[in-house]
Amino acid sequence: MYRQGADTPEYWDAHWKQHPPEPMTGMGMFCGFRDPINKYMPKDGLIIEAGCGNGNTARTIRAAGFNLEGIDFAPEVIEANKAIDPTGQYRVADVRDLDYESNSLAGYMSFGVIEHFTDVQRREILLETARCLKPGGVALFTVPHYNLLRRLRYGLFAGHTPPEDAPFYQYYFGALELCADLRAVGLSITHVDAYDAYKGIKDTIGGKSLLDRLRARNVKWRRRVDHPPALVRRAAGHMLLVIATKPGVAAGQKREAA
Known about the structure:
It is a single chain. By secondary structure, the chain is an alpha/beta fold. It has a domain at about 10-145 and about 165-195 and about 240-250: Vaccinia Virus protein VP39 (Rossmann fold). About 40% of the residues lie in helices and about 20% in strands. The chain contains 12 helices and 7 strands. The protein has helices at about 10-20, 30-40, 55-65, 75-85, 120-130, 150-155, 175-185, 195-200, 210-215, 220-225, 230-235, 250-255, and strands spanning about 45-50, 70, 90, 105-110, 135-145, 190-195, 240-245. A 7-stranded mixed beta sheet has the order 3-2-1-4-5-7-6, sandwiched between helices.
């Protein structure tokens, strides 16, 4: 996707000024990734959200009992997070060159970040993820999904050459592609899913008015539209979700086995 370069702190500071941090008091995790996080992410040990942006997602995850630190290379949004949430953990850091010790993190979360970087930079990010995770540590990545609906609609244009000098904005991943990238840095795939079928459907085949009417009926219907059964999510979900684990056994698990 070509629109505007999105791989600099300046771009994201400007972006997050339009979508500033909110307290998120009483707000639960988004249904699209709540269950995988609760099932796979450890609650003992430090987890980072790498590229936390306005911190809204980080605050809902931390409220669920996870020891989470948000990092971002955009300094102004980090200061905005600290101002709205003084008890939270936020700091400036670059996902391509983390300053955490090797084998130090229990978990790593990345929501819609790596798609904005080049192939070389993405490889650097994934290598840093693998380096920093403890044995048995868990990584969660979400990226725009080149799902079945998008393949059917845009597949004919797969070889299309972008306009000259058009800046790269983001990349859409197939599940096999992202899983291969994660395996290439030594991580094992644990879980694959997709979410936000609402956006995935309306952006490809339309029907926003109908989807909005269904969502407005009641909470049950809103859930059905936002997070339908797995088959629909995989075919139409806007975002791909992959969870991977660093091979080895975490220290706590070793003690339990002993």
